[in-house]
Amino acid sequence: MNGTDGGRLRRTRRWVIGTLVGSLALLSGYSLVDSGRHSAIVEDLLRDSDRVTAYQEAAYLSAYEMSLIRATADDPSGPQRERVLAVDDQAHRATLAIAVAAPGTGDAAEAGTIAQRQINLRQDIIWYLSMLDRGETGKAAEVLNTVIEPSYQRNTDRLLQLRDRYQQRYDLHQETARHDSRRLLWGSIVTFVLSLLALALFGWHTRAHRRQVEAMAATDLLTGLPNRAAFTTFLHRALTAVRPARTLPGITVLTVNINGFRHVNDQLGPHIGDRLLAEAGWRLSAVVRDGDMVARTGGDEFAILLRDLDPTRADCVAARLRETFDEPFHLDDITVDLEISIGAATASVDDDVSTLLGHADSAMHDAKQQHDSFRRFSGSTGQDSTDRLTLLGDLRRGLSDATQFTLHYQPKVSLADGSLAGVEALARWNHPTRGPVPPGQFVPVLETTSLIHPFTERVLTLALEQARAWLDAGHRIPVAVNVSTRSLLDETFPGRLAALLDAAGVPGPLLCIEITEHTVLSDPTTTIDALRRIRDLGVKTSIDDFGTGYSSLTYLKLLPVDELKIDRSFVADMVADASSHALVASAVDLAHNLSLTVVAEGVEDERTAAALSDLGCDTAQGYHFARPAPAADLDARFLPVVPA
User: Fold this and answer.
1) Longest dimension (CA), the chain
2) What is the distance between the alpha carbons of residues 510 and 461, in angstroms, rounded to a whole number?
3) Number of alpha carbons in the 13 Å side-chain half-sphere of residue 95
4) Cross-strand partners of 598
5) Average pLDDT estimate for 549-561
6) Residue 433: pLDDT above 50?
7) Which end of the chain is less congested by CB atoms within 10 angstroms, N or C?
8) Are 463 and 479 spatial neighbours (Cβ–Cβ below 8 Å)?
């Protein structure tokens, strides 16, 4: 209950008491002395009843708070931990209410002392919780046993003593009133009237409590915004509101996802994550109009309902949302920069809640997958989402079938002598009904799900088995495998890679792990640590598609890599384009100065190969030398027969 509601409740209570006193005054003409005495008794009854209730509530909150603190000691990350400070604030307000209810009395002064103790204890509670957060359970237990529990016990004992005192006074006055009522007919009437008023007051409290519970059930407690249930209810009412037949409802829904929030929560802790979500909700609310609705629908996702006949207003709102998230989040001494992905869907005549929200979610996921900040739902968006789900199911089944995924190998040729310097393994998927599915269709789908991990393990297993087969045939051919960002940043990946090398019996130098610049930039610290652990296995490492990312030079000198692959976009036209030629030449010199081997991708003709050789490039691959092919085709073309 907020301060406005509390003030309204107190004013209502004073109005009820004033009405009772006025009613009793009307009876004074019949018996001035007895009626006055009876009125005083009734007033004492009400006052003592309020005080008993107030002390009982304060004692209950104190005991409840202590139980939460003890539960937090047993489970520091449990739900009770989040409620401790809120209940402490309620207990403090309850003790202040006691002082207000009895002004000018010794009990009021003592209630103020109890309230002050509650304030002082808050610092001890915060100290106690911080020790639990740091894992200092022993110190936390000592503070709990020696500081917090004794203070709570003193407060609770005194509150119960004061409650019992007023309970006794209440009982005494009640007995006196009962005695007078038996003597006075008007006393019975007054009792009856008071009973009716008490019932009315109880009913009022019941309805107020029900409204409060309903409001809490529809509110996200972290941000104060409506939750998903409230949003869907409001959206349903808006969609079903009375309007002319076959006319559009004039409703657009935006779904907003905070990109990278999971990393903030994992690295900075849920406390910072919660504060970030609360501020994000405030920023979203500041962008829309009063008639619109912003809700937190779960996790790091929000939804916005726009009531406007012009669907293009969603584009303007999305632009303002992006602008407000361009400003960094300042949380204590931490600055966090985050972006958002937004999906928009405008209601059609026959759309229901689930359909409209599904359309907005599809557009949002499409924007996230395409690294675009805003997408509006269209028929193709929905079809793409359906196709993606179908493809995802086929991939899951395909990974459990040992025959569907195979590898082709593209040679990497030494420009110095034309010999085979290694191969790059490229995954191929032969769908049982669709036939061959291009990697460009299924790899992006894998990279957005946890299926990328078993897929990467499948590719590595096949590549290492082939390397072992070549080794058994007398050929040491290094095999390069592309590894996605999610797989490399998985802390278990280096350990699983070591197990695969051991199972295949392949020495580390015959495997090369290729990563992109995007992988480095997404989490430089974790990437560098993972690459170091991989190099400890003897495995080579390579930066693929060099030149297509940003800030490459910033991290290149820090990365534990062995090879640099120049992207085909620079190599393809280096003979005809002086700028591309200069960029390739600079990349070759830079790599050699850093003691890295250079591989040029996308070599399509002899002139490009000769130009790369003149620049001192070490290795090249492309259609000029060979297209990706099964290992058997590669053996027949590049590998000499080794005598038995």
Assistant:
1) 130
2) 13
3) 25
4) 564
5) 67
6) yes
7) C
8) yes
Instruction: Specify whether the backbone of 551 is left (phi greater than 0), alpha (psi in -120 to 50) or beta.
Output: left
pLDDT digits (tens, 9 = 90+) for 163-195: 777 777 777 767 776 676 666 666 566 666 666
Residue with tokens 């359970």: 137
Confidence (pLDDT) at 3: 46
Query: Token pair of 51, please?
Result: 């005080």
- Using an 8 Å Cβ cutoff, are 424 and 409 in contact? yes
612 Cβ contact partners less than 8 Å away, ≥ 6 residues apart: 415, 571, 574, 584, 600, 603, 620
**For 218-309, where are the alpha helices, taking DSSP H only?**
228-240, 261-268, 270-287
Tokens in use for 87? Answer: 């209940």
pLDDT of residue 27: 45
β-sheet bridge partners, residue 465: none
Strand partners, 541: 513
- Look at the block and give the residue holding tokens 């996802």: 257
Question: Is 194 exposed, middle or buried (CB count within 10 Å of its CB: 0-12, 13-18, 19+)?
Answer: middle
| Mean pLDDT score of the chain | 79
Q: How long is the chain?
A: 644
How many Cβ atoms sit within 10 Å of the Cβ of residue 398?
22
Neighbours of 452 (CB within 10 A): 20
Q: Which residue has the tokens 């030629």?
A: 581
Report yes or no: 75 and 25 within 8 Å, Cβ to Cβ.
Answer: no
Which comes out higher in pLDDT, residue 90 or 36? 90
**pLDDT higher than threshold 60 for residue 264:** yes
The residues facing 516 across adjacent strands are 544
In angstroms, the CA 365 to CA 255 distance is 10
Q: How far apart are CA 175 and CA 261, in angstroms?
A: 64
CA distance 377 to 361: 9
Across 234-243, 313-322, 423-432, least confident range: 234-243
- Count CB-CB contacts under 10 A for residue 148: 20
The encoded tokens of residue 383 equal 């079809």
Can you give the pLDDT at residue 184?
63
Q: Is 537 helix (H, G, I), strand (E, B) or coil?
A: coil
Q: What CA–CA distances, in Å, run from 191 to 32, 173, 183, 197, 479?
A: 17, 14, 13, 10, 95
Which residues on neighbouring strands pair with residue 426, listed in sequence order? 408
324 token code pair: 């407000």
336/261 Cα distance (integer angstroms): 10
Q: List, in sequence order, every residue forming a beta bridge with 252; answer none if it has no partner.
A: 306, 346
Alpha carbon distance 117, 148 (integer Å): 11
Q: How far apart are CA 537 and CA 71, in angstroms?
A: 46
Which strands sit side by side in the sheet containing 339-346, from one edge to the other?
A: 293-298, 301-307, 251-259, 339-346, 374-376
CA dist., res. 155 & res. 58, Å (int)? 9
C-alpha to C-alpha distance for 605 and 154, rounded to whole angstroms: 89
* Distances from the Cα of 231 to the Cα of 42, 58, 275, 295, angstroms: 48, 36, 22, 6
The pLDDT of residue 28 is 43
pLDDT tens digits along 192-228: 666 666 666 656 656 765 766 656 666 887 888 888 8
Distance between CA 379 and CA 346 in Å, rounded? 12
Q: pLDDT tens digit string along 372-390?
A: 788 888 754 444 555 666 7
